[in-house]
Each structure stands twice: as structure tokens, then as C-alpha cells.
User: What shape does this take?
Amino acid sequence: MIEKQASCEDDQEPALLPVAEARRRLFASLKPIEDSIELPVSEALYRVLAADIVSPVNVPPQANSAMDGYALNRASIPKHGEASLQVIGTAWAGQPFTGELAEGQAVRIFTGGIMPAGCDTVVIQEHVRRVGEVSGELGTIDIDSDVVAGKNVRQAGEDVAEAQMVLPRGRQLHAADIGVLASLGIARVRVVRTLKVAFFSTGDELFALDEHVPGTPLAPGKLFDSNRYTMAALLRGLHVDFIDMGIVRDNEDDTRRVLLAASADADVVISSGGVSAGDADFVTRVFHEVGQVSFWKLAMRPGRPLAYGTIGQAAFFGLPGNPVAVMVTFLEFVQPALKHLAGMHDIDSLMLPARCLSNLRKSPGRVEYQRGIMRLDEQGELVVESTGKQGAGRLSSMSAANCLIVIASEADGVQAGDRVQVQPFHGLLPG
Assistant: This one.
């Protein structure tokens, strides 16, 4: 009988590193970069804050009206019935009323107008009776006891208080954050410098799109290189600077040259293919020679041959060659690692419980990431079903899916109706 070596077809392989342990080693070894630069707020979208943002002002700076109506003092509100108030002026947004009100008086006020001295309440214009308002004369208004004291007033500092910590270090800035910074009068912010990532594909069989003449068939055994385009798209969504090192052919010298050049110029190096144990897997061979290997084979599917460690000062990820395995290992390991290196605190993807509508085959011993389509059913419950066959070369199944179904290592398959965990692509896929 042939003595068979361990392979990715085995249901269980004791030598495989558990996913949780691999993640622990990964984040224990990564040190966030400390270099930072100062940028105008208008150029800071998607950048990561290098320092806490503390508000220099109150927002709003003064108490103002939340509605169009009439500003008055609560002492003017009748306990029963109605009261008539003399309107003595107007407060526009940007044009305050400069006088002071006494009991029995009111000021016409518009949304955003500063509350006049002596006022603490705004009654909306729809809840008053106007009397004698002709030819520019303000006249009087009648109000009743239904007016609520203190209503429709935005207090100074109600949104943001002076000296309040508004945005923490490590936050990636999004559109609302840019607006908040502008509202505080902050024109420039200090952000972490952009990560530099180098990547390449490996394989004699690969053919680059820019080398292909449209309409001509590929030679037998040749394949279009999809992994490099996938990695470029994923990296672009993470807003890093990247260097496309192209396709590295299956030989040791070229692999060594590119790995050393990439690691000398980038914070992170990513390859796809060549990390198994075959005769043509030169990435594995060279990485063990020139780098420090933290882990190589993981108890996960797809993505068992995932190499991680360092080459010089650069972190290195050797991803599998199968297209789906490239995406899954990137999303589960490379993406959170890049966020961590950039100083981000929010690096873990959202996991949601869902009821599975499909029977899913799986053997215990590995975490599996299967492609799924999730939706809300008629009762509003989150449900998920498989996209079908789960081969690691079926990249179209990733395009058809809107989530990953994450099946725990100890699980022995999933039956329709079982509860599973899903990772929605919205928020997981960078963009």
C-alpha cells in the first residue's frame, strides 16, 4: 500500500495550525506603523487618524432655534387658557436679535437663529395665532397652555462640547467624519502614512491580460491571470499604495529576486500560488530560505497553504493559487493585518447569525468558508443558502455570493434549518 502524505484532501490533519492560533500569532507579530503626515481635511477621506481629535469649540456655539416659530420665556406660558404676547423683533439665522425679552414678549425666530437674551423656549409657527401682523408691523401672537417650556431649542455644545474627544486615534475617516471636522473649524489633521504593498502572481501557466490579443485563443495549458487583478481591486478598496510586480515564472532565481526586491520597497508583500509542497512551489522554498516563517499550513478551507512571516522588515503573505482561496485568505488574514498595521482599531468583520436553508457538507477539523446568498425571509429572519459547488477554483461563485458562511472547526456539516454564522460582503469587501 502507498504511504500517503498529508494533503488538502484529508478531512483532518493534526499538523495544521488552527485559525484562531494563526490570527493570534499574526497580530502578536505586527507592529502598527508610527509614521504620520499632516493633511488638509479635504484630502483626508479614508485616511487613519494618528492622534485623537479634541473639539476646540462648542457645536452649536450658542443656543439656537430648531424650528421656525417664536422665541419666548417660559414665564410667558399661561398655566391655563391663552395669553397674548407682543412680538418685538426678528432673529434670523446669522442675524441675531440684539435686544432682551421681558415676560409677555416674543421674538419671531427662524431655524438656526440664536436665542435672544431672556428666551428659553420656541413655539412653532403652526401653534400660534397671529394678530395684527400687517405692513411690516410684527403685532402680537396668541399662545395657549399646551406650549412646552424649553422645547425646540438646541443648546450650546449639544452636538459636541468644547474639549470633548470627538474622533479617536486609529479611526478611518469617512464622509460624516470629514463634516464633523469641518464643523469644528479643524482644517488639517494628522494621519498615518499610507501603507505600501507589493504583490505578484506565480506560475508558468499564467497569461497577463495586457499580453493577450483579443480574439486569439490561449495556448493549451495557459490561463488568464485573475489573481493579480483580484488582489489589485482588493488593495485599491483598502486605500493603500500598491506595487504590481507582475507574474513571476516558476523558477527559484526569479522568485528570490522578486521577493527580495519587493520586501526592500514595501511594508507588506503578497504572492499568490507556489506555497504548497510541490516541486514547482518555489515561493515556499525561497520564503523558508530568505524569511522568518511564522506559519504555513492552516486548518481552514479554502486556504490551507497560507504562508505568513517576515522578509527583512516587510510582512509576507504567501496566498494559495486557487482564485477563491486567494479571496478568502485575503479577507480573513491580509485585510485585517493591513488595517492593524495602519493603526486602525476596527479591524474585525461583522458576523451575523442566520438560519441555513441548504445542507452543507463538511468534516470536522477545519474552519470552512463557504459562499452563500443571504436575505431576509417573509418573517424578517436572516436566512442563507449555498451558491452551490464550493470548489476553490470557482471564482464565479464569489461573484454570485453576498456573504461567506463560516462553519466552525468542530462542526460535522450543516443541515437545512441549522443556525450558522455569516460574514456579509457589505463591510467585509473593501470599498
Remarks:
- The chain has seven helices and 26 strands.
- The chain has a mean pLDDT of 91.
- The two ends are 52 Å apart (CA to CA).
